[in-house]
Amino acid sequence: MEDIAQEAEDAVRALDLDDLNSRAGSHSYGYVEPTEAAWELIEEAVMPLIEDIQRRLDAGQPDAALATCAGIVLGLYRVRHDANDGCLGWAPDAPAEMAGEAVCTLRKALRKMGAPRIAGQSCDTLPAVLRDAASEWVDMLERCWRKPS
C-alpha cells in the first residue's frame, strides 16, 4: 500500500507548470483552459494506478486490489494541500475526485464479482483501510462506496 501511495503522490507532484503550459492555451485544434488541462494531466497520471485495481481483481486478488485502492487514496490525500503551484493550483479538487474514482472502481468491480467480503470485512461498508487512509474524505469515500457512479 505504501509503495502505491508513494507512486500516486510522486505522479501528481511531478506535474509542473511546464506540463500545464504545454497542454493549456491556444492550439491548432482550439483553446484549452488551464483548469481543463490540469485535470487532464492529473487524471492521466493517476488512471494507470486506478486501472490496476481492476487488473488485480481480474487476477483473483481482491486484497491486493483493496491495498492498491488504499494506496491511491493515501497518496492523493497527501497532496491535497499542494495547491500552491503546478497543476494542483489549477485543479485543487482533483485529488479528492480521483480518490473517489478509485473507490468507485473497486466497489463496482466487487459488486460485479458478487464478492460479499474483502480483507475479512463485509462489502456493505467502506473498508477500514480506506477510512484510515483519508480521514478528511471519509464522508465522500462512503458516498462513493454506497453508490459508485
Count of discrete domains: 1
Total beta-strand segments? 4
The percent of residues in helical segments reads: 55-70%
Fraction in beta strands: 5-15%
Mean pLDDT: 90
Computed CA radius of gyration, to the nearest angstrom: 16 Å
Structural class: mainly alpha
**H/E order of the elements?**
HHEEHHHHEEHH
Distance between the termini: 24 Å
Biggest pleated sheet: 2 strands, antiparallel
**Any low-confidence stretches, pLDDT <50, length ≥5?**
none
Principal-axes shape call: elongated
Strand order of the largest sheet: 1-2
Number of helices: 8
Summarize the structure.
Helix 3 (34-58) runs parallel beside helix 6 (94-113). Strand 3 (117-118) and strand 4 form a beta hairpin. The strands form two sheets. Strands 1-2 form a two-stranded antiparallel ribbon.
Set down the secondary structure blueprint.
Blueprint: H1 2-13, H2 17-23, E1 25-27, E2 30-32, H3 34-58, H4 62-78, H5 86-90, H6 94-113, E3 117-118, E4 121-122, H7 128-133, H8 138-146
Describe the structure.
It is a single chain. With 149 residues, the chain is mainly alpha-helical. The chain has one domain. Helix content is 68%, strand content 7%. Strands 1-2 form a two-stranded antiparallel sheet. The protein has a two-stranded antiparallel ribbon with strand order 3-4. The chain starts with a helix and ends with a helix.
What attributes characterize this protein structure?
elongated, 149 residues, mainly alpha, two-stranded antiparallel sheet
